[in-house]
Design goal:
195 residues; alpha+beta; Nuclear Transport Factor 2, Chain: A; six-stranded antiparallel beta sheet; 6 strands; elongated; DUF4252 domain-containing protein
């Protein structure tokens, strides 16, 4: 009798352990995929970074146009953007909607932004506009102008949506209020309502 109880306990313990491991795999897979996306941006490997974007987004912004925009942003001699730190803070348990899994990821990043003001027509006028834009987007408390190096240190907390058809390969969309109307036809309403 004791042997049967021990076998049953081991069986249930194994199921619970396996269930916990399986539950956390999605979190590790999402964090790993998002980390690869950020690493591609850091190393300015734009083609690979664009491949990490949820394909349905390309119905709003064509893939080639997305590559051009990303190259203009990250490979532009007038702009020097360096991602100093990136951290996935939390990953929601994926939710299955219409045969796809969706998970909201909260993350933080720290980056430097340096602008070559001399390369920009009306650079000093643009500086004021860029200051205002950065403060509006990230909040004044999260943007520090460093006069000695003439650059901005930006701390941001943002959200992304991880999407997968198989629970292993994850693609991403950055969730920002300004993008919301463009994402209405791409993401389920339940996900849209989360940001």
């Amino acid at each position: 009798m004791k042997a049967k109880i021990i076998i049953v306990l081991i069986f249930f313990f194994s199921i619970l352990s396996f269930g916990q491991t399986k539950t956390n795999n999605y979190e590790n897979d999402i964090k790993k995929s998002l980390g690869q996306f950020v690493q591609n941006i850091k190393t300015k490997n734009i083609n690979n970074a664009v491949e990490c974007i949820y394909p349905k987004f390309f119905t709003v912004v064509p893939k080639e146009q997305m590559k051009q925009i990303s190259n203009f942003t990250y490979n532009n001699p007038m702009l020097d953007i360096k991602i100093l730190d990136f951290k996935a803070i939390s990953v929601e348990k994926p939710e299955k909607i219409n045969n796809e899994l969706f998970s909201i990821v909260n993350y933080s990043s720290k980056m430097n932004l340096k602008v070559d003001w001399n390369s920009i027509p009306n650079g000093q006028t643009m500086k004021k506009q860029i200051n205002d834009g950065l403060y509006k987007k990230f909040g004044k408390a999260n943007v520090t102008y460093i006069p000695k190096g003439d650059y901005y240190l930006i701390n941001s907390k943002m959200k992304a949506c991880a999407i997968s058809g198989n629970g292993k390969d994850w693609k991403f969309l950055i969730l920002e209020e300004s993008y919301k109307k463009n994402l209405n036809n791409i993401l389920p309403k339940k996900i849209i309502d989360k940001f």
